[in-house]
Amino acid sequence: MCAKTTMDEFEALLQESFEIDTPQEGTVVKGKVIAIEAGQAIIDVGYKMEGRVDLKEFANPGEAPSIKVGDEVEVYLRAAENARGEAVISREMARREEAWDRLEKAYASEERVEGAIFGRVKGGFTVDLGGAVAFLPGSQVDVRPVRDAGPLMGLKQPFQILKMDRRRGNIVVSRRAILEESRAEQRAEVIGNLTEGQVVDGVVKNITEYGAFVDLGGVDGLLHVTDMAWRRVNHPSEILSIGETIKVQVIKINKETHRISLGMKQLQDDPWHSVETKYPLESVHTGRVTNITEYGAFVELEPGVEGLVHVSEMSWTKKNVHPGKIVSTSQEVEVMVLEIDSAKRRVSLGLKQTQRNPWEVFAETHPEGTAVEGEVKNITEFGLFIGLPGDIDGMVHLSDLTWEGRGEDVIGDYRKGDVVKAKVLEVDVEKERISLSIKALDEDPFADAVDGVKRGTVITVEVTKIEDGGIEVEYEGMKSFIRRSDLSRDRADQRPERFSVGDKVDVRVTNIDPKTRKLGLSIKAREIAEEKEAVEQYGSSDSGASLGDILGAALKVSAND
Predict the structure, then answer these.
(1) Cα-flanking dihedrals φ and ψ of residue 402, to 5°?
(2) From CA 105, how far away is CA 166, in angstroms rounded?
(3) Of the candidates 25, 239, 318, 491, which lies 20 to 30 Å from 480 by C-alpha distance?
């Protein structure tokens, strides 16, 4: 019984020693290099097991293998024995297992890991992390796109693990995260040493349409185009170039976003401080056109001081035209200061005010009644526009075209480009209007005809036309019409047909209308007036004499006279 117990214990101890001394497959074991031959290292992993490993598995990417007899190394035991009776071992797999253990700890604690870029793949690069291969996306190489990654190849440097999956064997790392962190620390340090209002030197790093980025020694500041100079700057490249060292003032620092605003013009005197003194109202100055818009043109009086000439202040005569048709960019012009608003940094200028108002000049040189000559510029339904000296126009209304007939009937006789003469009737400088008359060049035939004629005067006219409603007559070249009811006192004689063309007829003037240029004439009124006069001179019906007797007596006296 005792002997059997002793034997069982011995077998148990023997089996335990076998289990302890025999390495387990699929684990990392320690071994010793006992020989190097044919590009391989022969390694004793214990329990009389030896295996072979290619020397290249002991080399880092881009380096020669550093292994010699007697070195102790860790290898991965894939199988205890192969067909040749050797252990199947791998240094690379051992390094990978070791690396994954180490990297998982670093990933969990968000620590940096060291590695070297050794290859280029689609979308990025491969990185050796001491046995494990990771993927470095192209966007994670640097804070800015890298055109040539050659200088970075094989260089040991820190990386940040972004993602890892041991089951799938995937590791994604970033070099950019390390650089940004370092840069953030550097920015914070530089910004901490800056104060608003401080003047510093910087190097122009980049130029855009809206400004330039200036390197202040590890941190960039934005120099906006509006803060480069007091004058208008169309593009930063006009005054700056990349790599140039400039002196700038720190205008504003945003501690949260670490953004820095810079200025150059703040280091110069503000020209607006003396604008009101140098450019008093109504003073005239020479300036340069810097910009033209639809609503006017900007004129630079001096660097940093620009004024606007509104389109309404550009020309006395050119209305509703684009400013570009009056002035051109870079043109030297004379302008008058109309208004200054120092608070808003605005100056209103006038271009036309430097020249005399052409309507004032015309009024002085062409008083009312002066004869002028000009070209027909335009023909409208209400008259003609005539070009006059000073690049202005005057208008001849339809009613001022002719004494005879209607203006609507004669305006068709005129064409654009015709040179005509007219007389100045009125000049309204404030409304910029000039009234002309063509008919005023001749005397009014109506005025001549009715000269000395008054209402109630009896005149002799000639019948020129017989109509149903009356007769047309002519007096001193002036046409008039006598209605049927005015042809006689007696209704029986109110017949137009009793007259003939060419008859001379005495009529009484009942109305003179200078506006319509017409005479009101009546035979009936003449007869009534004659009857009244005869009654007054030769009796009345009250005395018993008949109207026939009275008229007979009057006619007899008239015949004797």
Answers:
(1) -150, 155
(2) 12
(3) 491
Q: Which domain holds residue 58?
A: 26-109
Phi, psi torsion values for 59, nearest 5 degrees: -105, 140
Do 117 and 104 lie in a common domain?
Answer: no
Instruction: Judge if 223 and 282 occupy the same domain.
Output: no
Question: Which amino acid is present at 328?
Answer: S
Which CATH number fits the domain that encloses residue 480?
A: 2.40.50.140
Q: pTM here? A: 0.46
Given 65, 86, 109, the domain boundary residue is 109
Place of tokens 């020669």: 64
Expressed in percent and rounded to 5, the helix, strand and coil fractions of the chain are: 30, 40, 35
CA dist list (Å): 475 to 154, 224, 485, 499: 123, 87, 20, 17
- 387 plus 426 within the same structural domain: yes
* 3 within domain boundaries: no
Quick one: 512 and 431 in the same domain?
A: no
Helix (H) or strand (E) holding 530: helix 523-538
461 beta partners: 505
Q: How far apart are CA 72 and CA 66, in angstroms?
A: 12
289 pairs with which residues across the strands?
A: 299
Listed residue (434, 432, 193, 179) closest to 319, CA to CA:
432
Write down the pLDDT at residue 61: 61
Are 50 and 44 in contact by the 8 Å Cβ rule? The answer is yes
What pLDDT is attached to residue 451?
72
Per-residue pLDDT of 279-324, as tens digits, reads: 999 999 999 999 999 999 999 998 888 899 999 899 888 888 899 9
Q: What residue type is 440 in one-letter code?
A: A
- CB within 8 A of 178, min separation 6: which ones? 112, 157, 158, 159, 160
For 403-421, write each residue's pLDDT tens digit.
777 778 888 888 998 898 9
pLDDT in tens, 24-54: 666 767 777 778 887 777 777 776 777 787 7
Q: How many domains does the chain have?
A: 6
Distance between CA 283 and CA 338 in Å, rounded?
8
Residue burial 290-325, b: 16+ Cβ < 10 Å; e: rest = eebeeebbbbbbbebbbbbbebebbbbeeeeeebee
Give domain status of residue 63, yes or no: yes
Specify whether 455 is located in the same domain as 531.
Answer: yes
> Closest Cα to residue 103, out of 89, 92, 115, 90?
115
Based on the domain organization, do 166 and 203 belong to the same domain? no
> Given 437, 467, 490, which residue is the final one in a domain?
437
* Identity of the residue numbered 97: E
Considering only CA atoms, which of 296, 291, 239 is closest in space to residue 268? 239
On whether residue 513 sits in a domain, the answer given is yes
- Residues 212 and 228: their CA atoms lie apart, in Å, by 9
Q: How far is CA 446 from CA 232, 408, 454, in A?
A: 68, 20, 13
> Do 467 and 535 belong together in one domain?
yes
Distance CA 31, CA 45 (A): 4
Percentage of the chain with pLDDT > 90? 19
Query: Would you say residue 161 lies in a domain?
Result: yes
